């Protein structure tokens, strides 16, 4: 009797292993397609333009090249695309030039290049990735030479001169930019034995702890000169997002020793829940933006990472809060899924609103685009790992089908300008984070939990895995 019961179950398990293996194979071919076309038409440029079949350089990386190579390294490695990984590694060894001049975003260089190189080093042990990461890290240090030590957003990698973004209020620095350095900089200190990197980010934390927070919230603009807020705009989406992410991940990466980061995260989330989390008339939970006390009932695609973050934090919230936060995370992830499900392409818009009868849809023409962003599938991946509810895999698969149908073009994957039409116009850009994040998170959604286990790795905000410090860093986090 016992045998006849267990047999079909076993068969089912085998079937599901087989199924997820063939799905993984599907992601491998997507990644290979994205990489092969980049290699053929744009190797050495920053991104591929998949319609015109050429490369794009842009102005975010200050003369650095190969953003897609460095962003793709760990995904290629994890997917065991050995030949392609070797191609990428060879480019880093032979052609990745750090002696460049030009205006770079401190934040973007850190999350994509330093994060990508560090992850490649930790996964493979290849010295070239470590030495490039350290060399590049040194070049970022002059940005911290301000009266408060809060770095400015833009740096010339050649001269070391730094300044604030022209569009940022009154010469301010951006919370999500200076607040998204901690994970990488601790690893730079650990690997170099030079405490300077850790000191820089610990000082940022000190300034943030000192300044008064309106209703416990962190506004997005801070003056690097006075250390005071410049404007009271609060958002868990663009301009704020990964600051919160790095608080909980700093604590996890320290093997749960950095209790200051945990407290900052807990307090910030409490304030966010109290002031920004709302429920729509149709019952969808969302996180609004806050402008000097007035709510803007809008959620950006970028804010959709927060389902995953809140779920990750819930695991460690103590028994009575754990279920509450898991529920909140599930509700937010569901809302983000709705923003996809309510579009004709089944891909979500850049921003969606909850006002004047609108629920989880873009109302402005300028917010209807989708640029291959990862945040929604990122939350599916965390929700899957933390709950094993199969709907997250189903939702992930819906995204894959939509990407294949609307974003795959002859020579790569492209963003689209309007998610509400099934004959979308392509934006001719294969973003590097599509290879670093979107495809990696989709792949991990269908892997066993021990592939880059959440107990041993934290993902930086560009999905580059950094190891949890189970053995005590030399660089202090006190
Ligand atoms: C990526 O560079 C990172 O995920 C960052 O945190 C936000 N923007 C893009 C993806 O949308």
TrEMBL record:
Taxonomic source organism: Otus sunia (Oriental scops-owl)
Name by which UniProt lists this protein: alpha-1,2-Mannosidase
Q: Which cysteines does the record link by disulfide bonds?
A: 304-336
The cellular location(s) given in this protein's UniProt record come to: Endomembrane system
- Determine if Calcium is one of this entry's keywords: yes
Question: Which residues are recorded as binding Ca(2+)?
Answer: 461
Q: Name one GO cellular component term.
A: extracellular exosome
Its placement in the membrane is given as:
Single-pass type II membrane protein
